[in-house]
Amino acid sequence: MDTINFRRNRRLRNVSGIRSMVRETILKKEDLIYPIFVVEGNSVKNEIPSMPGIYHLSLDNLAIEVDEVVSLGIPSIILFGLPNSKDDVGSEAYSDDGIVQKATRFVKERHPDLVVIADTCLCQYTDHGHCGIVRDGQVVNDESLDLLTKTAISQAKAGADIIAPSNMMDGFVAAIRQGLDAAGFGDIPIMSYAVKYSSAYYGPFRQAANSSPQFGDRKTYQMDPANRIEAIREAESDVMEGADFLIVKPALSYLDIIRDVKNNFTLPVVAYNVSGEYSMVKAAALNGWINEEEVVIETLTSMKRAGADIIMTYHAKDAARWLEGK
Ligand SMILES: [Zn+2]
Fold first, then answer.
1. Active centre residues (catalytic)
2. How far is the CA of 17 from the centre of ligand 1 (A)?
3. Domains of the chain
4. Assuming Cys at both sites, which of 50, 159, 208, 320 could form a disulfide with 108, CB separation 3.0 to 4.6 Å?
5. Are strands 45-48 and 51-57 parallel, antiparallel or unpaired?
6. 34 near 77, Cβ under 8 Å?
7. How many angstroms separate the alpha carbon of residue 32 from the centre of ligand 1?
8. Main-chain dihedrals φ then ψ at residue 63, nearest 5 degrees
9. Which residues cross the membrane (predicted)?
């Protein structure tokens, strides 16, 4: 046979041992952050209808949940709170007895080594459901910053290891950094929702967190899904303002953005595998249409391959189990 010149790329795929030697991306349970929804009360464990397997938990049930997270070897959780009462300035977000503050103290006492991340926003605490203060139908930027800073400080006081501001006001990282430093929390890192799109994939979360805006939408502060260069600009502002991690949210439809952020900055990149992404996989799995384990591992691996160092995901507990089984 004449020698034709072509490459034998299959040589490196022939046997499992070689495949694992040349594997470029390894998903680990240490990469995962598990989001948890906490509520006031006792013995509450209500499944969120659009997010099978995810619950609203009161502190007594939160205990069982975090014990499981720790036993699975997941290093970190992010807490979202549902307060009993809401008002127009989101008072419960920055109350020392707010639900996230109580849950943070509770978890840190039980598992001092579990990294607790506090989501810093107002939308779950305001009666209008926006992430800032509203005046004349507009979300006003600078006044919102004061309340977000107060929220971050009260979360740090409660023992949060990382502050994760998700509000997308201009200057939120600078304001929160300054506030934390002045309050003696100079060592607490900020995991900034640097690149957060105005996305329909948040639908199930809003049902879960009861945080839909009561008027208008969040398009004046969250990004247009059509924009790519703007993501660099947003991330750049947060880097300049002192962010320690950069979050890209959502993840699955934004893998190109994750790669852009990874290539342009040196901070750790966090992908938020959001509620709608989780719900789609769950719905298909419950119908027997896909192999859930394989789809979840492939999806999370693709986020790492795109450039994410860390992944926030509702699949974290299942993924940790599946990764151990391998
Ligand atoms: Zn918000």
1. 196, 249
2. 46
3. 25-324 (3.20.20.70)
4. 159
5. antiparallel
6. yes
7. 22
8. -55, -45
9. none
